[in-house]
Amino acid sequence: MAAVPPTAWILLACFALATLSLLGPSRATYDPTAWLIWGRGIVDWDFHTTFGPSWKPLPVIFTTPFALFGDDAAPLLWLVVARAGGLFAIALGFRLAARLGGVLAGVVAVVAMVLAEQFVYNFWRGNSEGLLVALSLWAIERHLDGRRWQAFGIAVAAGLLRPEVWPFLAVYGLWLIWKDWRGAPPWRTIAIVAGSGIAVIALWLVPEYIGSGDFLRAASRAREPVANSPAQADRPFLAVFENSHSALSIPVYAGAILAIAFAGVAWRRRRQDGPVLAIALIAAALMVIVAVFAEIGFTGNLRYVTLPAALVCVLAGVGWSRLLGALRGRFGLAVAIGAGVVALAASAAFVVRDARRFGDEMDQMRSAAKLSEALPAAIDRAGGEAAIKRCGPVSTTALQTQIVAYLLHLQEAHVGAPPRPTGTRFHPRGEGWEVKQTCG
């Protein structure tokens, strides 16, 4: 019997841990709940995307079959996928950094990723950033293994999560065509690359047109003004960098700079360490793309830079490992250990700060989950789903419209923000709900 690939075991472990995590507070946040509504709408032939967040194809590919398992199971199934994706991203971050710089590099990369601002917080609540990082790191790894078509296929899946991935997907596809061009056009390769590109664009645009009547509704939604976002700054391009610097700590950035410096020297002298430089260039290009998008109205918030931040974490591990390795090679083990102790001591304050922030984020996540878990009881207090619908319009605060719509089997358009003169209003109070009704 053929041996099971190590990646399969890692994926299985990630899904097992994600499933066990459901024993704790587990409620999807705003965007994932919209994806659940859309998946249910596809199954029920009642698909509308006019309201809510921007359309994303890949999540709805999951939430549509999940809808067949019922309203209670579907959110949990999606949380398992999102959390497993995030855990897989961390595992791949370790594996890629260790491949480039040894086990120490992998450990540093994992710590940096876990403590990165809002990284775990986002994928634990069902957002897709963990999946995006996992797919991107996996594509890089498959390329380094020489499995270029696998890398391309994984990159296509990543392209169904963020449009910032599209330029890299296009360049990689053209590179595949160039590699296969031997005297005559490689029509099979051209067909696969072109067909994949068309499929990605179609999956972004066609469902949006079916659901809203506007091919570009997702882009329009993403460009709606968001207070305090980089897009609302005087110089959005620069604001993206200013806003996102807090995602990682100074030791992480320092490690990434070290990795680039060591790789630059190795490339100039021996044409080595190309992958490290390529990862650095990809991270920089992603930041520039996000910044350019902010200039044309996309928010440019912290979630948008999750992928380049994860790549910087990998570089940080490589950089610190290379530095200690160089010190050991030149001055001996004792000096390398001493330098490592000094580096740890200098980083301790940053690690403690980030660990506290991580704890605060988990507390926020638990509070939000408890609030969502209290909503069914609030619906019962208001007379149940049927009575609420008979009472008139339903309203709640802006960030709660999706969960209220999902539990009441409504479209997002049917749950508005207060004030409304009649109907049922659900107002969050701490970890519970205040319900006011004026039926008419």
TrEMBL record:
- Looking at the UniProt entry, the stretches that span the membrane are 76-96, 103-124, 151-177, 189-206, 247-267, 276-298, 304-324, 331-352
Compartments reported by the entry: Cell membrane
Presence of keyword Isomerase: no
Major place of localization? Answer: membrane
Query: What is any one GO biological process for this UniProt entry?
Result: lipopolysaccharide biosynthetic process
Superkingdom of origin organism: Bacteria
GO cellular component, as recorded:
plasma membrane
What is the protein named? Uncharacterized protein
High-level lineage: Bacteria, Bacillati, Actinomycetota, Thermoleophilia, Solirubrobacterales
